[in-house]
Amino acid sequence: MFWYTGTMKNEKGSLSGSALPRRDFLKRVFAVGGLVATSRLPVLADDPAIFPKRGRYERLVLAYIHIDVGATKPFSVLHISDTHLTEAYPEEGKNKQELKRIRTQTFGGRQEEALRDSLAWAKANTDFVLHTGDLVDWMSDANMDLVKKYTGEGFFGSMGNHEFSPDMWLSKEAEGEAGKAVNAPKLKAAYPFDIRFDSKVVNGVNFVTLDDVYGTVGTDQVERFHAEVKRGLPIILCMHVPFATPAIMRADDKFWHKAGKKFETAAFPDPWGDNKRQREDAVTRDFIAYLKTEPLLKGILAGHLHITVQDRFSPTAIQYIVGGNFMFHGQEVTFA
Ligand SMILES: [Fe+2]
Could you report how far apart the first and last alpha carbons of the chain are, in Å? Predict the structure, then answer.
């Protein structure tokens, strides 16, 4: 374990690695082991109806990935995404209560437990927790309090589209970048990293995170990315919405658009939604084209699709999408 030793720095000034020693990180993030013991939440492994013989960690569904990135020392990261917490306090009003009822059913009601299990796994087996967005399903005081409870300095990551939604379909929301601006202060207060763009160097590997929750990036993020490249370190780019590549688009289309239909053609689907916006938005299109030629880019970690799929992005980087953490999915990425 090397959290917040001299090898890990935040260069953006939003957090101070050296100001928060490893023991504080462990207290804040990995204290969840203690929470498991005291919480009244159901625990899947203790539920006699589900997996009665399973061991403590076997309820996680983990994929394994190795990236030879040129690290100064081997280490690993637990990459999770799309936990979709659905909590609301009783006093938070009608919309939040309705969302809590409906969306807890949608995501199974085990999301907090899945997050705790994942963090417990990370404590015992990895050096780093990376969450690529949709930690909450919508904004509520209760969800923001859960974010503060479970995340600490060592919990690094990016926003998801759901982070920016106060009431989902139940109220008229400011959309796009305007909506982000309205909602950013609450999110900034809860999440322990820069929600727009951030960077952490771990054993000579630069983890760069950015908000691309509607599929696109901004010129400010492109500029900040170029500044990171100038440091000359290998880069792992981490974000919520994947950059469209053929195999990822095909899997996305098969799972989400062709649900209930058998596989009939390997032809790539026409771009839609985030994929379409990535092609139509000039800043994003140019950024993706540039990234494909950037030799320092060694991998991309993303979520959003709720399925585990990977595809080559560039000559030096494969893009790895992790399935939904609400279903106890995660991927341990080893680096050397
Ligand atoms: Fe998402």
Answer: 15
